[in-house]
Amino acid sequence: MNIMLVSVTERTKEIGIRKAIGAGRGVILTQFLIEALIISLIGCALGLALSWVTLKIASALMDAVTFSITPTIASLSVAFCLAIGLLFGLYPANKAANKPPIEALRYEG
Predict the structure, then answer these.
(1) b (16+ CB within 10 A) / e for 72-95
(2) Secondary structure of residue 11 in the 3-state scheme
(3) CA–CA separation, 2 vs 93, rounded Å?
């Protein structure tokens, strides 16, 4: 959520320009929600890759035990990451969508 709040603050002028030329609340909301979901999915992919490598190393070190990631676990991880991305992306996206265009254009941050 902090990353998305910083992104909204840094892109205040962009939000103001987009709203001034006709972008509605839904367009801005969708833009930031998709961005939050993509960031969340990138984190999920990196986490799954790191887990897979760690499990392969652990399996190689322990001859009697084999570790693996099942498709069910991987899909649960993706679903959880999407839910987290959506949940924690809603507040920053809503904050961006509700900015009045004139105030956003005046912002000097």
Answers:
(1) eeeeebeeebeebbeebbbebbeb
(2) coil
(3) 12
Instruction: Round to whole Å and give the CA distance between 60 and 54.
Output: 10
Q: What is the mean pLDDT of the chain?
A: 90
Please state, in angstroms and rounded to a whole number, the distance separating the CA atoms of residues 3 and 43: 13
CA proximity to 73, closest of 51, 41, 43: 51
- Classify residue 14 as exposed, middle or buried by CB count within 10 Å of its CB (0-12, 13-18, 19+): middle
Extract the tokens encoding 44: 């999920």
Amino acid at 99: K
- How far the first Cα of the chain sits from its last, in Å, is 20
pLDDT tens per residue, range 52-105: 999 999 999 988 888 889 999 999 999 999 999 999 999 999 988 888 888 888
